[in-house]
Amino acid sequence: FQNKQDALYDLPGLNSEGLLGATRFADALTDDARLVMRVLQEAQSDGANILNYCQVDSLITQAGKVGGVNVSDKVSGESYAINARVVVSATGAWADKLRGELGKEKKIRPLRGSHLIFPSWRIPSAQTISMSHPEDGRSVFVYPWEGMTVVGTTDLDNPEADLSEPYIRKEEVQYLLHGVNHLYPGLKLSTSDVISSFAGVRPIVSSGGGLNPSSEKRDHSIWDDNGLVTVSGGKLTTFRLIALDVLTAANHYLKQIDGRDHGRPIFNQVKELPGSVKNLGAYWSRRLSGFYGKDVWHLSECAQGDWSLVPGSNTFWAQLVFSARCENVVHLDDLLLRRTRIGLFLRGGGIAYHDRIKGICQQELNWSDTQWQDEWSRYQELWKHSYSIPTP
Ligand SMILES: Cc1cc2nc3c(=O)[nH]c(=O)nc-3n(C[C@H](O)[C@H](O)[C@H](O)COP(=O)(O)OP(=O)(O)OC[C@H]3O[C@@H](n4cnc5c(N)ncnc54)[C@H](O)[C@@H]3O)c2cc1C
């Protein structure tokens, strides 16, 4: 516990009205997209086949037992069947769809959480703050992330039709601004301070009791339906434990998988770093080896000694080159929103760096001028829809 004076020292500008003090707790911070990429990279090294832009259209069943999936490739337009002894569906908020084919009742309540991103100088917060929102008492966080300050989240039912590209609504913008202005009244933040927004849909396993969204449990659930193992709900923090539970369920069909942890580290250790990465110092070495694992060597080759940052971000230009060259980028939004996150950190999604980004894409992805124009238009449209803030 910190008394009021210490809390105000750590969190200058905090609303001191009625403040008794603050309590401190520890949690983890990650870049969720890089975490997923690292898991995929290591899975691939261990023999997994990874298919990008492929959609599971339906299950293959024989005598009531699931024996594979029908898949369509959204890039080539091809469709094919994949047979398997067990199918694991980790389809988040969409999990009911495949289970529905087996006549199972709906379990998922998709709840949207939206965030606002501000430049860090506008909300200079060195620590994460969890506050009770003045309107409803929900916990809302203000936290430093990737050199920016993020305010979030909300917790609202999300229509099924809007699952694929969720976006923040006007009321959520006002709710989050109200919360952060209550916390830091002197900052007088407004929509013009917001750089971008993002929203995600939590796959909450519904109690079915019509609870207030924030009262629904966040635990994960696993259902085993005759060869279809579905996992949904849960937290990113516990992804490894969830995966081990899935392996235990899948073992029923495979009989050869060890679903125990044995205390092993989550990721393979990167034993040696390239000299040019080491020279960046301890902070960047740790960050880049965490993001890229053994691929940090390829990253270093892509940099060719140029470790300049995209201005206004913690991202090296070399990371864009590496992702375009090595990380299955199909569309521009893959590169700017899901391999790197610079689309979130730069005004207008990075419009000021249009020419340099175009140069990287044309060089690494062999895009023609027409292809670039199509990709840029697609990206701008997506950014306006799901990553900007709605116009009042
Ligand atoms: C707003 C918000 C805040 C959160 N905050 C935290 C937090 O603070 N701490 C924490 O630990 N966790 C947090 N989480 C939870 C965390 O993000 C989730 O636990 C995690 O994303 C679940 O991962 P998943 O892979 O199960 O599902 P998802 O990330 O939803 O991924 C499911 C994937 O399946 C794909 N898919 C669906 N149907 C098909 C199909 N038919 N064929 C092919 N692909 C398909 C989708 O495109 C999607 O990419 C938060 C989530 C949200 C939305």
Structure, described:
With 392 residues, the protein is α+β, with helices and mostly antiparallel strands. α9 (317-326) runs parallel beside α12. Strands 7, 8, 9, 10, 11 and 12 form a six-stranded antiparallel β-sheet that branches. Strands 3-4-5 form a three-stranded antiparallel β-sheet, with no helix packed on it. Strands 6-14-13 form a three-stranded mixed β-sheet. It has three domains: 54-107 and 215-254, FAD/NAD(P)-binding domain (3-Layer(bba) Sandwich), CATH 3.50.50.60; 110-205, D-Amino Acid Oxidase, subunit A, domain 2 (D-Amino Acid Oxidase, Chain A, domain 2), CATH 3.30.9; 275-386, Alpha-glycerophosphate oxidase, cap domain (Helicase, Ruva Protein, domain 3, Orthogonal Bundle). The protein has 13 helices and 14 strands. The chain is 34% helix and 21% strand. It binds flavin-adenine dinucleotide.
Encode the helix/strand succession as letters: EHEHEEEEHEEEEEHEEEHHHHHHHHH
The residue-averaged pLDDT reads 94
Helical fraction = 25-40%
Shape: globular
Low-confidence runs of at least 5 consecutive residues: none
Number of domains: 3
Main sheet summary: 6 strands, antiparallel
Tell how many strands the DSSP assignment holds. 14
CATH topology group of the largest domain: Helicase, Ruva Protein, domain 3
If helices are DSSP runs of H or I spanning 4 or more residues, what is the number of helices? 13
Share in β-strands: 15-25%
Query: Radius of gyration over alpha carbons?
Result: 23 Å
Gap from first CA to last CA: 41 Å
